[in-house]
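User
Here is a favour to ask of a fellow structure person. I am asking you to supply a protein in sequence and structure-token form. Please set it down just below, with no commentary around it:

Assistant
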Amino acid sequence: MSTLKMEKIREAIRHAAAEFLAQESNRTSLITVTGVHLSPRRDKATILVTIFPEDKEREALEFVARTGGALRDFLGKRVFLQRLPYISFALDVGEKNRQKIDELSS
């Protein structure tokens, strides 16, 4: 599969996941979707998120893990794919590392 098509699929999933989390979030923390890792067969998608404030990370990750099935249903209505991937979530530690480097360099 072309990398351009994979990038379009990742971007569509990222956009739909961000929209879903904005609607379903309890508003006690800010959950930002920063990226999507998609398996080569497109059967698994890991959605990368950052959470602010950091002391709410555990609760927010539990929330997004609980809503994975509902997100998959939401994706089915928004993103037209032959087969919807199984969804998992992970913290984007790369973004945290970039923020720490920015703090140290300032």
User: Anything to note?
Assistant: The chain has one domain: 3-105. The helical segments are 3-24, 57-66, 68-78, 93-105.
